[in-house]
Amino acid sequence: MRKVFDIRWSNYVKSVTSTVSAVLLVAVAVLLKLSLGYTPGASTGLVFVLFVMAVFASNAPLKIVLQNNILSIKRVCFTKNIPYNEIEYIARYNPQADMRLCASGGFFGYIGIFCNRQTGYYFAFMGDISEAVFIETTNGKRFVVSCEEPDLLVSEIRNRPVQE
Question: What range(s) does the Bacterial Pleckstrin homology domain occupy (predicted)?
Fold first, then answer.
């Protein structure tokens, strides 16, 4: 049976995404105008700004799908699949005090590598940190995701029979 959990963006994520996007679009317009005027470095800056926007937008988390014994984290352009039999631990989580190492702190969600002393390093795909769920796999990889019904997601995974 297929179960879909939507990833909701918090008001903070919506504000950061729209503000940063507006600033970057203004930067694109300025750099485009400068590059047409043959200002050195403007075209490099333009490519960099567009690249940054594309990377974050393409990784924005959209939903979590449970189907065929796989938890799928659907993003705009990519999907991360975690087989149920590789999920060693799953629980609600509060990432509020965690440190960003190589990550977005609200631009198109909380995406990237975070860490803290208790859990260590993990990959985050969150839209609202108040709905966070921590997942650890048998190979030691850790993920933090968020969705609209985090408690239901945790119970669905914990109570689902694993098929080898």
Answer: 63-160
